[in-house]
Amino acid sequence: MFKLSFKIINICLFVFVGLFLINNKKLYALPGIDLNVRKNQIQAEINSLIIELENVFNDRNIDSSTRLISMVTIREKIDNELNNLSEINRQISRRYIYNLQRNNNQNR
Question: Where are the coiled-coil regions (predicted)?
């Protein structure tokens, strides 16, 4: 009985951790994640959200309150992506500083 519940808990934990790692876009520092590629993806997402925001703004077929709610929602998504972009930029600059320090230490 104990072995069976232990196996079930292990499987559930494994699935949970797997889903966490797959769906988590905040894990930029993991090996294999290219920060410059992720930066370009986020910039493309921001550009598409801005286009979507402009389309909602210019769409006169939607009533004002619905249009305003949609614009606020899109703006919140843009703010979130801008925060992600600034975090990636910080990580890129940290990586650059670390590489400079490592090169300076090797040259001594």
Answer: 39-95
Cα 97 to Cα 63: distance, rounded to the nearest angstrom:
51
Judge whether 42 and 85 are in contact, CB under 8 Å: yes
pLDDT of residue 79: 96
CA gyration radius, the chain: 22
- The dihedral built from the CA positions of residue 56, 59, 65 and 68, taken in this order, carries a sign that is positive
In angstroms, rounded to a whole number, what is the distance separating the alpha carbons of residues 51 and 103?
Answer: 43
Mean pLDDT for the stretch of residues 7-27: 63
In which band, very low, low, confident or very high, does the pLDDT at 23 lie, cut at 50, 70 and 90? Answer: low
User: Which residue in the block uniquely carries the two structure tokens 């001594």?
Assistant: 108
**31 or 5, greater pLDDT:** 5
The CA distance from 77 to 57, in Å, is: 16
